[in-house]
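About this split. The held-out portion is used to measure sequence recovery: a designer receives only the structure tokens and must propose an amino acid at every position. Recovery is the fraction of positions where the proposal matches the reference. Here is one held-out target exactly as it appears in the evaluation file.
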């Protein structure tokens, strides 16, 4: 994948989480170890696609010229007809599940058996509700592409339904253990799907849903407002910029525990055995020097404070030692409140002379005899001075 290749939610999320892992997956094309929960999710999704597809009545897609395709919807006066119960029976559903089952990634036969039983249970419960309340799908497992203000994006959407009012609802199945309404409201995945559907369909997106299959709960959220989409677009733009610049530094975090590439990652890669003893010695020496540095820093500050107190007591700025002379020096800084400076200059019609109201601009005005003396006095009165003393050394 290059910087010009379309970003999916998965690839964007991977780069945001760890740019180096993105490189391993999308540039180096390194395979990941199969995991049972991913296999389980793919199997359940494929069976649900087979279940729902008979109800499909395609919606109008946008064409390049901005016109719409004619679909079956156009031939129904008074809208869509009521959906019919799919021809697939419960037994056929379970047979499809058995055909689709894959054993990849499970840690043991016992784990596979638990997942397989879970899948049968949630599909049967879903089927009961599905037959009673069939959806009105206009797309199932739909692959969509779009250019989002210069960013190429794509995605596979589980289901797009027709709403009662004639709009579209995006539905994404989830087989995870837990899910909440906040997950739906905060999902970048649903946001990207909204952009894709709005770019490819003529009807408005009226709802976004994460459907939790384990609890048969649709967690619904309204369409994202422009401000939310703009923030996501900016984040995705940063990812595209990073990919283009080949910025692939690792980002350590909780995700590292499930990463297959630790042996290749500089955060975890082991030192070669023949160099281990030498490098251990360097680390130990560095650690020792850092502790000494901290101790010396504390002692240096205490000594400088003692010299400052002596200079104040005796009214001197130079103190001789055996081989050097300590010279007390002063660093002076001024600060001027921006809002007050703006007010003074605007009332005098001089805002253009210090457009940023910076310290440098104000100090320049204070030194300029051409500036009205009253204005200079008012500016000087709002300034605060900070004096910092420090010591230099010269050879005696």
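Reference sequence for scoring:
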């Amino acid at each position: 994948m290059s910087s010009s290749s379309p970003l999916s939610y998965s690839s964007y999320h991977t780069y945001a989480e760890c740019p180096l892992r993105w490189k391993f997956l999308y540039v180096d094309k390194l395979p990941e170890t199969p995991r049972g929960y991913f296999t389980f999710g793919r199997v359940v999704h494929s069976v649900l696609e087979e279940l729902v597809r008979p109800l499909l009545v395609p919606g109008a897609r946008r064409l390049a010229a901005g016109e719409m395709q004619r679909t079956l919807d156009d031939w129904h006066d008074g809208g869509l007809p009521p959906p019919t119960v799919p021809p697939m029976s419960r037994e056929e559903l379970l047979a499809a599940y058995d055909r689709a089952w894959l054993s990849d990634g499970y840690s043991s036969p016992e784990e596979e058996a638990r997942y397989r039983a879970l899948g049968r249970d949630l599909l049967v419960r879903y089927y009961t509700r599905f037959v009673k309340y069939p959806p009105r799908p206009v797309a199932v497992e739909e692959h969509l592409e779009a250019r989002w203000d210069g960013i190429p994006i794509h995605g596979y959407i589980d289901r797009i339904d027709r709403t009662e009012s004639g709009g579209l609802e995006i539905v994404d199945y989830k087989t995870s253990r837990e899910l909440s309404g906040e997950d739906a409201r905060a999902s970048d995945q649903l946001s990207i799907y909204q952009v894709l559907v709005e770019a490819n369909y003529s009807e408005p997106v009226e709802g976004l849903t994460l459907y939790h299959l384990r609890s048969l709960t649709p967690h619904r959220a309204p369409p994202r407002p422009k401000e939310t989409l703009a923030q996501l677009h900016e984040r995705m733009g940063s990812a595209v910029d990073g990919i283009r610049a080949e910025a692939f530094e690792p980002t350590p975090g909780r995700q590292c525990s499930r990463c297959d590439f630790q042996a290749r990652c500089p955060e975890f890669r082991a030192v070669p055995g023949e160099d281990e003893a030498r490098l251990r010695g360097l680390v130990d020496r560095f650690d020792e020097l850092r502790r000494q540095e901290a101790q010396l820093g504390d002692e240096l500050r205490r000594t400088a404070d003692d010299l400052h107190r002596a200079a104040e007591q005796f009214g001197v700025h130079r103190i001789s030692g055996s081989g050097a002379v300590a010279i007390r020096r002063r660093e002076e800084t001024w600060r001027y409140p921006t809002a007050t400076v703006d007010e003074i200059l605007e009332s005098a019609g001089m805002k253009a002379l210090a457009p940023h109201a910076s310290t440098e601009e104000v100090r320049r005005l204070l030194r300029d005899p051409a500036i009205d003396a009253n204005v200079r006095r008012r500016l000087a009165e709002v300034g605060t001075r900070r004096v910092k003393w420090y010591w230099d050394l010269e050879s005696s």
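Annotator remark: DSSP finds twelve helices and eight strands in the chain.
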